[in-house]
Amino acid sequence: MIAVDRARLTRLLQTEQEAYAAAHPRSRALYADATNLFGHVPMTWMNMWSGGFPLYLDHARGARITDVDGHTYVDFALGDTGAMAGHSPEPTIKAVSGRYADLGGATTMLPTADAQWVGAELTARFRLPLWSFTLSATDANRWAIRLARLATGRSKILVFGYCYHGSVDETFALANPIHGGAESRPGNVAPPVPVDLTTRAAVWNDLASVEAALRHGDVAAILTEPALTNIGIVLPEPGFLEGVRELATRYGALLMIDETHTFSAGWGGATTAWDLEPDIFVIGKSIGGGIPCGAYGLSEDVAARVTHHTDRGDADIVDVGGVGGRSPVMRSRSPRCARRSGRCSPGRPSPT
Description:
With about 350 residues, the chain is of the alpha/beta class. The chain folds into two domains: about 60 residues, no CATH class; about 230 residues, Aspartate Aminotransferase, domain 2 (3-Layer(aba) Sandwich). About 30% of the residues lie in helices and about 15% in strands. A seven-stranded mixed β-sheet has the order 4-12-11-10-9-5-8, sandwiched between helices. A three-stranded antiparallel β-sheet has the order 1-2-3, with no helix packed on it. Helix 6 runs parallel beside helix 7. It is globular and about 65 Å long.
C-alpha cells in the first residue's frame, strides 16, 4: 500500500486555490461584498466550491456560460438537469414572454389548456395516467408521500442510503449496519422528529435489506431513484429494480420512482428505457425548460384509493392539498375528478 502524502496534497490545493482566486477577481469581490446573504451566497449549497468562492454568472446560452471575469465554460451541470435543453432555449423564452408580457396572468392560480397537453405528454413518456403539478420536485415528493400514506393506511417510507429526493425530511436516512433500523444521515440539519419514526432504510442493490424492511408491514411506499445520483452515479445491478417492484407488490407497498435527475436516460427517462412500473412517479425541473416546477403521476389504482378516502370525508385534497396558493374557484371542483384518466393523443403539437 502506498501512503498518501497529505502535506503535499495540502500544498497542491493551496496552489490551485491561489491560481483560481487570481483568475477570478470580480467573482471574489462580489462574494466578499455579499454581506446581506447568509454565507455570502443566495443558496447555502453554493459554497461547495473548492476554490473558496463560487463563480458569478454574467450570461449563459445553450451549454455555455460566461462568468463576470469573462471566462466561458462548457456547462456539464446544466442547472442540475433543470437546463437539460440548454440555458434559455428559444421555446422557453417564447412561452414565458407570451404568458408574462403578452397574455399576462401567470399569478392568477387558474388552469390553462396547456396543462392537459402537458399531462398527456407525461403519460406518453412515463405511462402514469393521472398528473398533478407542483413548484418543485421536493414539493411533489412531499405531497406524493402523503397520498401514499393515505392510499395504504401505512406510516413509513422506505428509502435507500444516500439517495437524492430534494429536502424531504424522510429521505435523510441510512440503514444501521448492526440492527438494520433507520438512522439519521450524517450532517442532517435539525430533523423534526427522529428519522426512524417516519422512515425505514435499505442498502442499494441489496434486495435482502429491502425485504427485511418491508417485513415490518408499515411501509407505505418505497421511494427511489432508478440510479443513485447523490454519491456519483450508482447504477442498479441486473434484476435489482425488478426485484424491488416484486417485493413492493408482495408486501403491499407502493413503488414511487423519482426521476428528477435520471430523466436524461431517454425520452421517457429510465422508467420507459428500463421498463419500470411505478405506482407513483415524480419529476422535477427538467420538464420546465429552466422554469422551476415539478409534477407527480399516479396510477389509476392509487388515484382510486385516494378518491375513496376523499369521498368518505377522511381527507381533504382541496383545502389542504398540494402546495402553493389556491383560488376560491377550486372549492367547487369535486375530488372525483381524480378518477378521470387524463388520456388524450400526445402526438398533437403543443399550444405554445
